[in-house]
Amino acid sequence: MNPNTAADLILHNGRITTLDPKYPAATNLAIKDGRITGVDDAESYEHGPNTKVIDLKGRRVIPGLNDSHLHVIRGGLNYNMELRWDGVPSLADGLRMLQEQAQRTPPGQWVRVVGGWSEFQFAERRMPTLDEINAAAPETPVFILHLYCRALLNKAALRACGYTKDTPNPPGGEIQRDHSGNPTGLLLARPNATILYATLAKGPKLPPEHQLNSTRHFMRELNRLGLTSIIDAGGGFQNYPDDYAVIDELHRKGEMTLRIAYNLFTQKPKEEKADFTRWMKMTGPGKGDDYLRCNGAGEMLVFSAADFEDFLEPRPDLAGSLETELKEVVALLAANKWPFRLHATYDESITRFLNVFEEVNRDVPFTGLNWFFDHCETISDRNLERVKALGGGIAVQHRMAFQGEYFMERYGKLAAERTPPVRKMLELGIPVGAGTDATRVASYNPWVSLYWLTTGKTVGGVSMYPDKNCLSREEALRLYTQGSSWFSSESGKKGAIAPGQLADLVALTDDYFAVAEEQIKGIESVLTVVDGKIVHATDEFSPHAPPQIPVLPEWSPVKVFGGYGAPLDVRKAALAGVPMPQHQHNAECHHGGCDHAAHQLLAGIEAARNRYAGFFGLGCDCFAF
Q1: Which of 228, 410, 456, 537 is the most buried (most CB within 10 A)?
Q2: What is the spatial distance between Cα 29 and Cα 498, in angstroms, rounded to a whole number?
Q3: Please, are residues 302 and 285 in contact by the beta-carbon 8 Å criterion?
Q4: Angstrom distance (rounded) from CA 594 to CA 25
Q5: What is the pLDDT of residue 571?
Q6: Residue 32 β-bridge partners
Q7: Alpha-carbon distance 294 to 286, whole Å?
Q8: Can you state the percent helix, strand and coil of the chain, rounding each to 5?
């Protein structure tokens, strides 16, 4: 036996969906040096002294999920500061969590609920009121972002931001006022979300050492949900290279548990070309490695092309300068072989964008550029054909799962039936990748997105699409794996469990192909492997779990509630009937009292997490003010 050819990891006794058309199903696989080396060929796998062998115990295994549009770099810098309402079953639960976190948050810090939720997910099916928020947190500043529609601030946050009767409305938003002209605490995104971005930016930031910790926890949270790769779409106030220093350091230290390909998002209106010209001297598409690499430009190329989506408001009219400014930037990118992505919600905007692209393509062909649109909720068949002719792709996200009710109210149910027209995209042979657009306009949970793709339902349970516009479970999974790989120019390198591909895979809590459709949203990972290394393990695989890392700062909401669905919330667990471990007194009690019992309790909750992850009850009925 040659130790140089022995497998690093062998997984057997599983139900493995490979997504490899040559060998679609398997029971075992082998991994060596971060690559798949064998599938369903157990007799040929060489064992060495360091070979790890794991019995999958019949678990469903799939290729690692790949979100083609998630703001992971920005999200990581802030994750430990944010209280997540994503997946919380009731407003009563959310308000109780808000009250508890306000009591834990030290002076000078804020409580932030920064998107990823919809009032339609709540049992009460309504928004919180400003009175409820002020009662939950009378002294601690609270900022609650609802999609990119509005933000709710309590009185303490208004004071912290300096918003008074004399504060004028900024160009990018509206401060709602009472009859005396005083701000009420409601900020409205009219005509765009600038006021929401700018107000959130007034809050304190984590120090660099806590940002490192926060980013590691966010990556682990995504690993918990089965994600192994992300394409980062940049973002406002995400400056290159300054705001990439944290992810660069984690990459240098070998502490990334998620593969990231990042796009660069222009930061300066009217200076977009200068931004990209400067960045071209600093980096370029493909620069980096399989863990962290530049992917090109976007999703903002020029500010005049930002067709901001808020279906509570009419479609925005874009500036007359759009064509001139966009052509200048796209010509620069195409000439330098920089792939690009562009935020595009409305067909009217897409028509103007494509006019520019076709004009540039006549002088500088887009051949092999892997350019693409993001979103495309209302794109027409004619514009789909134009995208196809230019060799473009479309990255789709489950924004309609969070805004579908608003869209139908404004435009009608018939108009909503193909928002976006994913089936038509696939029929035309356009590359399509799936994702979320998290963390603000939607949740980062990929299983909510897969639920939306396969059922056509919003998080509130409203059916939007006829069956013909929904995907099969395998089709949806392909978009979340092989489909997304095209968008980082990595087709054939990841997305399938096949010899030679990157060893990224996930074993699931439940069989995605067999569970009832409503249970899809509650699926998680019990074993996540990235580059052949185990980055998440729970349940029967817990002995293989990587070491835990502390949560910083000490008052972080993540430490008490966790991420999606508040999996560490003791009260929510109790309401769902999860038995709490009983504290057993021991010698430690004589030294530090019984405080260590809290750690035992949290460990017990983590072990029982999947028993209440799908709980959708009425919350705590004792919450009242």
Answers
A1: 228
A2: 9
A3: no
A4: 50
A5: 83
A6: 35
A7: 5
A8: 35, 20, 45
In the structure, what pLDDT confidence band is assigned to residue 577 with cuts at 50, 70 and 90? low
Using the 8-state DSSP alphabet, how is residue 497 labeled? -
Residue 349, SS3? helix
Find out whether 184 and 154 touch, Cβ atoms under 8 Å. Answer: no
Whether pLDDT at 321 is above 90 = yes
Average pLDDT over residues 209-221: 98
Number of DSSP helices (H) and strands (E) in the chain, helices first: 21, 23
pLDDT band at 607 (very low <50, low <70, confident <90, very high): very low
For 526, list phi and psi in degrees, rounded to 5. Answer: -105, -15
5-to-20, 49, 341, 534 alpha-carbon distances in Å: 24, 12, 41, 20
Tokens of 26: 């398997």
Three-class SS state of 66:
strand
Q: 206 is written with which tokens? A: 């984590």
Residue 531's DSSP bridge partners are none
d(CA 36, CA 142): 47
- Contact between 586 and 596 (Cβ < 8 Å): no
Q: At 559, list the tokens.
A: 């430490």
Indicate the pTM of the whole model: 0.92
Rounded-to-integer distance, Cα 40 and Cα 27, Å: 6
Distances (CA, A) of 58 to 11, 18, 47, 227, 512: 11, 15, 22, 21, 13
Predicted confidence at residue 328, as pLDDT, reads: 98
Tell me how far apart the alpha carbons of residues 586 and 10 are, in angstroms, rounded to a whole number: 40
Cα gap 190→173, rounded to integer Å: 5
More confident residue, 78 or 590: 78
Spatial separation of the C-alpha atoms in residues 85 and 553, rounded to whole Å: 20
55 phi and psi angles, rounded to 5 deg: -85, 120
Smallest CA-to-CA distance from 302 within 260, 273, 282 is with: 273
Question: Rounded to whole angstroms, how far apart are CA atoms 19 and 369?
Answer: 26
Residue tagged 């998630």 (tokens): 70
Q: Tell me which residue of 343, 361, 339 sits closest to 305, measured CA to CA.
A: 343
pLDDT of amino acid 528: 99
Q: Give me the sign of the Cα torsion angle 146, 450, 70, 64.
A: positive
CA–CA separation, 319 vs 303, rounded Å? 9
* Planar angle of CA 116, 122, 128, nearest 5 degrees: 80
Contact in structure between 452 and 468 (CB atoms under 8 Å): no
Q: Position of tokens 């639960």? A: 93
Burial of 290 by CB count in 10 Å (0-12 exposed, 13-18 middle, 19+ buried)?
Answer: middle
Backbone angles phi, psi at 433, to 5 degrees: -120, 150
- 203 forms beta bridges with none
Per-residue pLDDT of 272-317, as tens digits, reads 999 999 999 999 999 999 999 999 999 999 999 999 888 988 898 9
DSSP-based three-state secondary structure for 503: coil
The neighbouring-strand residues paired with 528 are 506, 536
Type and span of the H or E element at 10: strand 9-12
Which one-letter DSSP state was computed for residue 580? Answer: P
Euclidean distance between the first and the last CA atom of the chain, given in angstroms as a whole number: 71
Classify 498 as helix, strand or coil: coil
